[in-house]
Amino acid sequence: MKIYFLGAAGTVTGSKFVVEHNETRILIDCGLFQGLKPLRELNWQPLSVLPSTIDFVLLTHGHLDHCGWLPKLVNDGFLGKIFCTSPTKQISQLILLDSAKIQEEEAERANKENYSKHNPAKPLYTVKDAEKVIPFFRIVDKDLEVKLTDDIYFKFFYSSHIIGACSIELHIDGKILVFSGDIGQDDDVLLYSPVKPKKADFVFMESTYGNRLHPNNDVMFELEQIINNTFQKGGNVVIPSFAVERAQTIMYLLWQLKEQNRIPNMPYVIDTPMGISVLDVFLQNTKWHKLNPHQCEEMCKMFTMISSYKDTIETIYNEKPKVIIAASGMITGGRVLSYLERYIVDEKNTVLMVGYQAEGTRGRKLLEGAKEIKFYGKYYPVNANIIMVEGLSAHGDQKDLINWLSELENKPQKVFLIHGENAAADELRIKLNETYGFDCIVPLLEQIIEI
């Protein structure tokens, strides 16, 4: 059996792992690289395993760094089946169409304003390309065994993180391979705790927060203080947010604060068409999360929901203080750029970060104290307050990750630490060895391992 580490090895994004057994090839996740330019450029390179030779894709969840390269895979010759849960199909469809639309718009703007090095600038894939992926999806419920070949079957099991997200238990010729996907926090606001694996010969485990513990902070109190302080200065709070799960979590927390009269009466805006669509996914998949339909409905009443870009512009130029939730979460694209283009230069305003910021993203640069930031080919001085509220991550921290392996009935032969920057993966490697005596490896990008 061979494992090809084609993404999320030594980095957080671009998840792609090929499992090859006899004549069968299975791709676990098919994500986009994000962040540093050398990583983003990998999205344009052909996959080192020919897509036409891949039989199946098993999708852990619908985030862009796990599903965002599917249109390229299909364009480059993939003809197999893509297995995922029902919410993951819905989320992936939204994410892929949104990603394609943003790429088309950015290429068009770059050509119009002549700030791209490429002439002409082109999208990685188009909306039409994204639409071609949808017929390949096959919905599978969690905890159901699915046979792929005579000696290969798999099942999904709940991993929290975002709605529909699952880990994978893959049985090949009597061996059990467990792919964690992304593991949520044990005490997530909206989602249930992750299910822990019971048996595994080989574990492929995320390590995003492998070297960090989430602070034991009062997130509600922090949000209350930040919003009230900014309101008193007459400023705006911009919350760059992932449209899936994080936007809904922030909405829920703000709704709770408002119900308790702890934050002011002012506009609360959600400006992410995809984030609004995700609310429908929550309503249609109530067994996957803690909110009931009535709570969803009451929460939504508090927010002005913006879909059209015309309304975005009107909101930006409205001088009244407000709170805006807008994608994308790492400020790599989306509507949040339009808000920050105007608001980041004003010290009255606050940019509130609520999630992981990958290397090379604008979000990471802001957190590291950048004095200026580039949008659409122009630099803007950073005068707004940049604040990070930790503890809202959809990823479990080091303690959660170690705990996730606590119910294994056998000692795995190897634990491969993926989906993390090298320092995080290496510290988790040491911790897992100290805690359980597990033999852990941090694989390199494009490494091929035989097991």
The largest sheet, given as strand count, sense and whether it forms a barrel, is: 7 strands, mixed
Q: Number of helical runs?
A: 14
- The fourth-level CATH homologous superfamily of the largest domain is Ribonuclease Z/Hydroxyacylglutathione hydrolase-like
User: What's the rounded overall pLDDT mean?
Assistant: 95
Count of structural domains: 2
Low-confidence stretches: none
Judged by helices, strands and strand pairing, the structural class is: alpha/beta
The rounded Rg comes to 21 Å
Within the largest sheet, what's the order of strands?
A: 6-5-4-3-2-1-22
Distance between the termini: 5 Å
Secondary-structure arrangement, i.e. CATH architecture of the largest domain: 4-Layer Sandwich
- Provide the CATH top-level class of the largest domain: Alpha Beta
At a glance:
The protein has 451 residues and is α/β, with parallel strands linked by helices. Helices cover 32% and strands 20% of the residues. It has 2 domains: 2-212 and 394-450, Metallo-beta-lactamase, Chain A (4-Layer Sandwich), CATH 3.60.15.10; 219-388, Rossmann fold (3-Layer(aba) Sandwich).
List the main descriptive attributes of the protein structure presented here:
451 residues; single chain; Rossmann fold; 14 helices; 7-stranded mixed sheet; alpha/beta; Metallo-beta-lactamase, Chain A
What does this structure look like?
With about 450 residues, the protein is an alpha/beta fold. It has two domains: about 1-210 and about 395-450, Metallo-beta-lactamase, Chain A, CATH 3.60.15.10; about 220-390, Rossmann fold (3-Layer(aba) Sandwich). Helices cover about 30% and strands about 20% of the residues. It has helices at about 35-40, 65, 70-75, 85-115, 125-135, 220-230, 245-260, 275-285, 295-300, 310-315, 335-345, 360-365, 400-405, 420-435; strands spanning about 1-5, 15-20, 25-30, 55-60, 80-85, 135-140, 145-150, 150-160, 165-170, 175-180, 200-205, 235-240, 270, 305, 325, 350-355, 370-375, 380, 385-390, 415-420, 440, 450. The strands form four sheets. Strands 6-5-4-3-2-1-22 form a seven-stranded mixed sheet. A seven-stranded mixed sheet has the order 7-8-9-10-11-20-21, covered by helices on one side. A six-stranded parallel sheet has the order 14-13-15-12-16-19, with helices on both faces. Strand 9 (about 165-170) and strand 10 form a beta hairpin. Helix 4 packs antiparallel against helix 5. The longest helix is centred in the N-terminal third of the chain and has 28 residues, at about 85-115. The chain starts with a strand and ends with a strand. The model has no long low-confidence stretch (mean pLDDT about 95).
